[in-house]
């Protein structure tokens, strides 16, 4: 990681020129529900499609695999048996668990020979609060945010087929990290299962492989860790290489960039015998798939022997590290750096098993400090990767918080956890000036304040008297710069500090870069232009630009720039802190970053599609007694919204409701103008509304509740309410 201040500037000049902004300034539609629509669309009014419903308290249960049985909230799920796996077919209810898209473009690509870092997430059996697809009100959840250090994320549990909860897939893909599920067999039941599909002819194991490929393809994750932890018959173990070869080839055809990894457990004789290395007893499995994940009880001599077996595929050997330090292992816990030092010394990839140890075993109140400490100790052994696509927009939200904020305005108070809502995270850590200088900058996440979401990036630092500024690199990019880009930074300084805050971009000549690697760029091959304040913006950015250069609510400031560069590569994003004019003393500062945007100007000229065909289905009613003594009785409404929209165009959807809810007086006609109330976020073309309080309709009259679907474009601008999708429900009580 780059150092701050003078050291950072020197390193940046070797790679290209840094440009400082002056401080003054997949086209696939989501599947429509195959099941019966329980509403009847009766009319179109000027505001919304309208559906009619007669209130009924008759139970209408939803499939327990897909919905929480107590709340009917959609949940991620697993498969527990071979029979369930072979019987699975894509269903309308599966749509909630489909990821928003594939991994973002990254450099170097995963296929490069650079040693990789795999994180295997195993926590208390899996499917905890992360199973709730639309989020939960968890107060102290586990959150991972050091994504730029890892290349592969494995979601692990002891269920036969572990399908990663979609929140993890969305968060990982946003950072260019691929996601694997787990196929595991264990104990005597595992022996019987393997005998059933491996000991017969090719039809049996191909059927299992085809299902695994279909599941990864449908839910949009990237492959499988195969973990056979039971003995196999000679007939079964003889077919394992054929199973792996077929699974790998089919996955590569159907899932671009897909991976199949094998865990070090069974040997070629069929015995369950962990080797802690790659050798002649397990080499046949390594040769049949994309990689080999070793067991954890290795010593350096195991790594030395593995060198002779791996050949040119050193990066395809993932040496396992149990962060819990169970058994006879090297390192683990806060000594995991000792494991990484040996692994990297020999050129292998690393597989960190259960780094959630910092959450499970240490004080929850110090979780963020402990997690930052854990990853900072490994930093020197973890090469980062770069995002290589625009738009690049982040509010630094962790996908959790103690309240919800939207462009500086508080929307709701209370804990929330929604992994899909995690935005791109920066490089974290402490950066010090080279030499004898005392300057430093430290970055860490903070839930105390936010501009958009639940958290912001807190930057603390010190500018010593002998230097004029310090800087910190937040993101590594490899983006060919379009002719014109718009850049925005939202920040605020805490306390009385008057330091200058400026965004810096490092650029280089795109012609000197090549696919599969990052060339070192010199100053002579770089091209530099100065950003200028944005004057006449595109219509889509009117609200965005309206805030530029102004003091916003909560003390936030937004700076906006227009940058014109040709033939360049955008490499890094820095924030620079400079001492106030005339100051000669040591300057301490605390700065919060609320949002960073880099947008291709041409993308803003493309019309956005509108949210269309909003429908209502799977309606469930429950009686609701008012908390106020003598207050009117009400209803609790649960239902599912569907709509049509091109998913590659959005970051998410914000779902709102309008008047007629929460015990208000429903109108029999179109709702009166009012501020919509946020219900939640969706990352697919559907949303399950659960337990919404609405007023009971008067006898002979209709109640009305309206739903609005607000698309949030990847570019980060606000879509006018007139362009949101809308649907209304008229409901009446049954005649007695």
From TrEMBL:
This is Cytosolic endo-beta-N-acetylglucosaminidase. Residues 11-20 have a biased composition (Basic residues). Pfam families: Glyco_hydro_85, Ig_ENGASE1_C. It is found in: Cytoplasm, Cytosol. It comes from Bos mutus (wild yak). Its EC number is 3.2.1.96. Belongs to the glycosyl hydrolase 85 family. Residues 127-403 form the Cytosolic endo-beta-N-acetylglucosaminidase TIM barrel domain. The keyword Hydrolase applies. Residues 605-732 form the Cytosolic endo-beta-N-acetylglucosaminidase C-terminal domain. Keywords: Cytoplasm, Glycosidase, Hydrolase. Residues 1-41 are annotated as: Disordered. GO terms for cellular component: cytosol. Residues 1-10 have a biased composition (Low complexity). It catalyses: an N(4)-(oligosaccharide-(1->3)-[oligosaccharide-(1->6)]-beta-D-Man-(1->4)-beta-D-GlcNAc-(1->4)-alpha-D-GlcNAc)-L-asparaginyl-[protein] + H2O = an oligosaccharide-(1->3)-[oligosaccharide-(1->6)]-beta-D-Man-(1->4)-D-GlcNAc + N(4)-(N-acetyl-beta-D-glucosaminyl)-L-asparaginyl-[protein]. Its main location: cytoplasm. Endoglycosidase that releases N-glycans from glycoproteins by cleaving the beta-1,4-glycosidic bond in the N,N'-diacetylchitobiose core. Involved in the processing of free oligosaccharides in the cytosol. Gene3D superfamilies: Galactose-binding domain-like, Glycosidases. It comes from the Eukaryota. One of its GO terms (molecular function) is mannosyl-glycoprotein endo-beta-N-acetylglucosaminidase activity.
